[in-house]
User: Which sequence fits this backbone?
């Protein structure tokens, strides 16, 4: 990656819009391990809500998001370490009120902070926390803006299992099909399907750049006898059997691509940590 950046700089810096903005770079340290979202609510300097969602492994080198599940299935002792660093860092930054979306990785050296966002998380974060823990982050944010003391009622056990899968383009090409996830409709676990690209749209795959999101699938179960494992197995079985709804710009990519950006079978949600 370093060599690629330097080659780009040497070749394009005089005519590139990117380099015309300046040649200084901020390099972030690479973290191994698993990634997590931590949603925190502060009420006058007190942490009144602190819950974790597992981020599914991102396929390198682009680190595009693949999906998430809530509640976490990570070992509880490590969850406590993750929640502590997230809360301590948010408070250390001087925040007193609001909803925060914190990202942390549990590395071979323990938990490490990625970032603290002074806002609610996007995409399915609100739904994940509302379904799993019964806490509406939008309502809490509004009340915090009005300085109304916050005291969300948090159940001892999760109310539901929620999972979201962001389907990435496996290669560069054009979308050819409409409603290609229609076979999921009517299943008891399905919460919602969203299409982001449609027939005729040209999309980018990992062979060119950060892959394009094709669609999003959200699944939910409130049945006490249905585990997160059951939910994730359903997602895996429903998606891996599909043929990507695309025509590749380069037909050779069809054979060369492992399809991991369509469904990261080799990077599927962890039930046991990769970091010992």
Assistant:
């Amino acid at each position: 990656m370093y060599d690629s950046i330097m080659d780009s700089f040497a070749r394009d810096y005089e005519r590139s819009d990117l380099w015309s903005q300046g040649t200084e770079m901020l390099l972030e340290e690479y973290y191994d391990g698993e990634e997590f979202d931590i949603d925190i609510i502060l009420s006058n300097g007190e942490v009144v809500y602190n819950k974790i969602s597992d981020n599914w492994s991102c396929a390198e080198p682009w680190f595009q998001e693949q999906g998430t599940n809530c509640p976490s299935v990570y070992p509880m002792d490590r969850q406590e370490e993750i929640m502590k660093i997230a809360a301590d860092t948010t408070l250390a930054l001087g925040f007193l009120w609001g909803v925060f979306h914190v990202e942390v990785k549990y590395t071979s050296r323990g938990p490490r902070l990625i970032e603290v966002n002074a806002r609610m998380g996007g995409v399915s974060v609100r739904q994940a926390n509302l379904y799993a823990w019964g806490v509406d982050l939008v309502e809490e944010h509004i009340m915090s803006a009005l300085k109304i003391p916050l005291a969300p009622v948090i159940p001892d056990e999760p109310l539901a299992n929620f999972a979201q899968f962001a389907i990435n383009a496996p290669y560069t090409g054009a979308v050819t099909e409409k409603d290609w996830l229609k076979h999921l409709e009517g299943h008891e676990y399905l919460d919602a399907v969203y299409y982001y690209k449609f027939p005729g749209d040209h999309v980018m795959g990992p062979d060119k750049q950060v892959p394009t999101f094709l669609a999003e699938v959200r699944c939910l179960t409130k049945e006490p006898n249905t585990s997160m494992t059951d939910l994730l197995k359903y997602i895996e079985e429903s998606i891996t059997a599909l043929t990507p709804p695309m025509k590749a710009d380069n037909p050779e990519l069809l054979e060369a691509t492992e399809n991991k950006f369509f469904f990261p079978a080799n990077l599927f949600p962890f039930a046991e940590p990769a970091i010992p």
Summary: The mean pLDDT is 89. The helical segments are 2-12, 76-92, 125-133, 137-145, 228-240, 252-256. Residues 12 and 268 are 38 Å apart (CA to CA).
